[in-house]
Amino acid sequence: MKTAYPAVVHEENGSFWVEFPDLEGCFSEGGTIADAISNAADALGGFLCSLMDRGIEAPKASDAKEIDPEGGFATIIVTDPLSYKRSTRSVKKTLTIPEWLNDEAEKRHVNFSSVLQKALIAIIQ
What we know:
By secondary structure, the chain is of the alpha+beta class. 39% of the residues lie in helices and 21% in strands. The model has no long low-confidence stretch (mean pLDDT 90).
């Protein structure tokens, strides 16, 4: 689920920082413009993932043409917040399947965790 938000890139003392006017508290920085924008994509993904985890709906993204860059420049940052959820720790789940299905899957050396993960990812995307 790709998501895009407008951002403003500022230069200060030879380094760069990025703010998201629609997302209070979401900032990033970097030694170069490329680093700052790359870090901004990470910051945006983590920020949106945090909102999802807390059941908070993300604000609607503004039109980038309407953003006042205040001495910097406006750009669009794209991220996939679900990728930040995917990088978190694993949890153990217990499940029940019919015995015949278990026997057939074990004969074929099926990795149950992998099958379940792939199925769940396919459902939520």
